[in-house]
Amino acid sequence: MRLAALLGPTDRLPRRLAQLLAGLVLYGWSMAMMVRSRLGLDPWDVFHYGLARHVPLTFGQVTIAVGAVVLLAWIPLRQRPGIGTLLNILVIGIAADLGLSVMASPHGLLGRRVLLVGGIVLNGLAGGLYVGAHLGPGPRDGLWVALTRRYHLSVRLVRTVIELTVLGVGWLMGGVVGVGTVLYALSIGHLNQFFLARLEVRTQEAEPAPVVAETCSETIQ
User: Fold this and answer.
1) Is the four-CA dihedral 22, 23, 28, 31 of positive or negative sign?
2) How is residue 9 annotated by DSSP?
């Protein structure tokens, strides 16, 4: 695949690349914060954490491996990756492992709650940064985007089925489900929309970011 196809629109590219990388690093760090809170993870991270308990890989390495496998599912769906898609697979997992290596779980419940809420808010900010860079969706986001476009299905239906499936499988494997899981589900759509509206980099050729489009049309979260 040619570099031009991965990069997409080239206007304001340095700013967009810097914003993409910042968003991905912060996203991985926010995942580590939620893991260390021990109060529940988002559905995909419940799956990552549960799988990591059964394979000789770290949490971040599992995140990378799952992202790569999900990306393979794009091929029959004819969804094209961007440079942001490929960096998403690598950077988030590395940043998550780095965060877990330097971050300890607080002993008191108050500290764990602060870590959880901070992790969710930071996750929303990070999502606004990397999605707003218009350099390609993450592999998991691209999966539901491709399915909804190819089969003309409801975004709400596809996302709900995918996330409930990975949540259930992850929970059965020992992933952490708790109040943080519910809080994340109720708040992340609003947080993404809030930050994306302020951080999206406008380009001449890029389509509106999918989080804004889906939230406005179907009020998913």
Assistant:
1) positive
2) -
Q: Could you write out the DSSP letters of every residue in 130-176?
A: HHHTTS---HHHHHHHHHHHHHT--HHHHHHHHHHHHHHHHHHTT--
- Other C-beta atoms lying within 10 Å of the C-beta of residue 153: 14
Three-class HEC string of 65-125:
HHHHHHHHCHHHHCCCCCHHHHHHHHHHHHHHHHHHHHCCCCCCHHHHHHHHHHHHHHHHH
Query: Taking a C-beta distance cutoff of 8 angstroms, is the pair 136, 82 a contact?
Result: yes
> Is 28:91 a contact under the CB 8 Å cutoff?
yes
- For residue 80, pLDDT over 50 is answered with yes
The model's confidence at residue 207, banded by pLDDT at 50, 70 and 90, is: low
Contact call for residues 96 and 60 (beta carbons, < 8 A): yes
Q: What whole-number distance in Å separates Cα of residue 194 and Cα of residue 142?
A: 21
